[in-house]
Amino acid sequence: MSGMKSERINDFAFKIATVNGTGSASANGLIMQLIFRMGVPVSGKNVFPSNIQGLPTWYEIRVNGTGHVARRPDFDLIVAMNPETYARDIEELVPGGWLLYDSSWPMADTLKRHDVNFLGVPLAEMCVKNFEGGRTRILMKNIAYTGALAALLDLDMEVIRGLLEETFGERKRHLLDANFKAIRMGYDYAAEHFECPLPIRLERMDATRDSILIDGNTAAALGCVYAGATVVAWYPITPSTSLVDAFTAYCRRLRVEEGSGRSKAAILQAEDELAAAGITIGAGWAGARAFTSTSGAGISLMTEFIGLAYYAEIPCVFFDIERVGPSTGMPTRTQQGDILLCAYASHGDTKHICLYPKDPAECFEFSVQAFDLAERFQTPVFVLSDLDIGMNDWVVPRFRWDDTYRPDRGKVLDAEALEEVETFYRYLDVDGDGIPYRTIPGEHPKGAYFTRGSGHTKYGKYTEDEEEYLEVIDRIAVKIENAAEAVPPPEIRSRPGAQYGLITLGACDGAVREAIDQFDEEGLRFDYMRIRGFPFTPEVTRFIEAHDLNIVIEQNRDAQLKSLLTLETPVSKEKLASVRRYGGLPLSARQVTEDVSDCLGIAAKSAEGVGA
Asked: Are 328 and 279 in contact (CB under 8 A)?
């Protein structure tokens, strides 16, 4: 059958369906880099299993010249390399779409849709004829489908050649030649047997000139380096481990003493999450900028130590790369299920500073801010990213760095200052801002104190007296409340004539922004607020109060952001409604428009009932 009637240039989505462990990640990464190098905005979503090799895995690529990054839930083209998922893959194609598959083996007629174009390329057969060794043939089959896509989508072959040369260089010329041979093989077959390019195709742009392609965990790790972090303790857990892997790689280049070559960073894999939290807190107490990277399951195990850091007022940073829970949940799917957990982590009365980046650019930026906030307010700080941000590739503006930046170490008394102090009391609020002075162990004998995780007075002495306890715990509450002035303020976008507000945080931003643009075309206007930090700034309350109805869009079952807004602002809960998606896949604009429309319909019916 014929394909789509009109051309769509730089505006389509396609998916690659393979098997975990077959080396497809390299081919998919090459395709992403290729589109990026052609100057075209692109986003990639990796949908992979948490279990062993051999299970289905998918890589979704969205090309969008205007820069929309949200997931597209239906696809114009699918590269079907896994017969076990043929039926599911074919079902997800739009009418008139294309299925590229390995025709070395016949496809059952029962699978074929009359409104889909089937493009068979004998990839395995060609690789058997042209390459030696079973593993090599599997790897080259993935590279060969990249070549077929190059012909079908009009990918630039010169850019492909350049990327391969960057990857392999002269020292691995045999690998470069083999990879390019496989690409040329797929390209030539597609060009000879199909009408190329397809109506969906790429065309060079200049929209990525001042941008980079990076994942959030790598960006956060670089931010930690720039912030001056020298200690990380962690226990491996998906999807956070790559943050520490990246930090380790950066430290090998940037945290090395000149001359001796000795490492200037301590990177420790602990025996479990509890130990990782303890090491991080101990390092923070000793004066280092220290962090741990984990996921929601890890935060659950760390909560007793988090309570110690809160009450003993020790600066430290926790990166929570959220995944689907509870229990071990679905470790390779994304969610925003730890909003309440991190805001109030630990037993007793606690409240924590939290930052919510929307993409890798903010992961870099907020990493630096997290350490400054932790030391300024002498408390744990949480950076809540998620799997979608942390492990997927995003096109973001090139990072900018201010060389005049100096870390905000907060209220620290050095040896010279301590020399002039008559008596130092660790938990005494001298300035009336809720923040006491701290010292670095070993700086001066006058700076010694007993770190109290049990009931203590403002002078650092043990107590179980009611008034003495209240004086300390209430001061800490004031300190955290004052932190609202220092966290990143919400991003607010106002529209003339808007009656309703949309509220979200984190990676939902792209889908919500795209949905707002779609609503604009229908003449429906929304104001928009993206929460970036907690405790909430006064702007959050003002935004909610300015609208009859605010729809809170988030990726968890229990409306945790809505609950936090209800708990932490004085607004009426009747002003807040919920849109929730929590199945583990990144949010799409279509889901937002459908759910917001349903929400407004329910609200309208309710209003009619009240007026009847």
From this structure: no
Which pTM does this prediction carry?
A: 0.95
Q: How far apart are CA 410 and CA 383, in angstroms?
A: 19
- Chain centre distance of CA 12: 23
Q: Would you say 451 and 378 are in contact if contact means Cβ atoms under 8 Å apart?
A: no
Pairwise CA distance, residues 303 & 534, whole Å: 18
- In angstroms, the CA 408 to CA 418 distance is 19
Query: Can you tell me the distance from the alpha carbon of 535 to that of 382, in angstroms, rounded to the nearest whole number?
Result: 12
**Contact assessment for residue 207 and residue 40, using Cβ atoms and an 8 Å cutoff:** yes
- Judged on CB neighbours under 10 Å (0-12, 13-18, 19+), 199 is middle
Structural contact between residues 220 and 385, judged by C-beta atoms closer than 8 angstroms: yes
Provide the β-strand partners of residue 78.
15, 99
pLDDT number for residue 198: 98
Cα dihedral: 477, 342, 393, 584 (round 10): -150
Which is it for the CA torsion 205, 25, 93, 190, positive or negative? positive
pLDDT at residue 169, as a whole number: 84
**Selection from 541, 528, 216 nearest residue 383 by Cα:** 216
Q: Evaluate the omega torsion of the peptide bond into residue 535 and state whether it is cis, within 30 degrees of 0.
A: yes
- Cα(333)–Cα(58) distance, rounded to whole angstroms? 12
Q: Which two tokens stand for residue 332?
A: 């390779």
Residue 50 pLDDT: 85
What would the pLDDT profile of 305-318 be if each residue is shown by its tens digit? 999 999 999 999 99
Q: Output the pLDDT for position 610.
A: 45
Give the number of other Cβ atoms within 10 Å of residue 436's Cβ: 22
Task: Report the distance separating Cα 383 and Cα 233, nearest Å.
Answer: 16
Q: Say which residues have a Cβ less than 8 Å from residue 222's Cβ, sequence separation at least 6.
A: 246, 250, 364, 367, 399
What are the pLDDT digits (tens) for 501-518?
Answer: 999 999 999 999 999 999
Quote the distance between the C-alpha of residue 161 and its chain's center: 31
Residue pair 269/253 in contact (Cβ under 8 Å)? The answer is: no
The b-or-e profile of 246-268 (16+ CB within 10 A means b, else e) is bbeebbeeebeeeeeeeeebebb
Low-confidence ranges of the chain (pLDDT < 70): 1-5, 52, 603-612
User: What are the tokens at 65?
Assistant: 């010249």
Helix 273-285, helix 296-312: angle, nearest 10: 30
> Please, what's the b/e burial string for 103-117 (b: 16 or more CB within 10 A of its CB; e: otherwise)?
beeebeeebeeeebb
Residue whose entry in the numeric block shows the structure tokens 């990639």: 44
d(CA 358, CA 389): 7
Give the strands of the sheet with 117-121, arranged side by side.
Answer: 42-47, 56-64, 11-19, 75-80, 93-102, 117-121
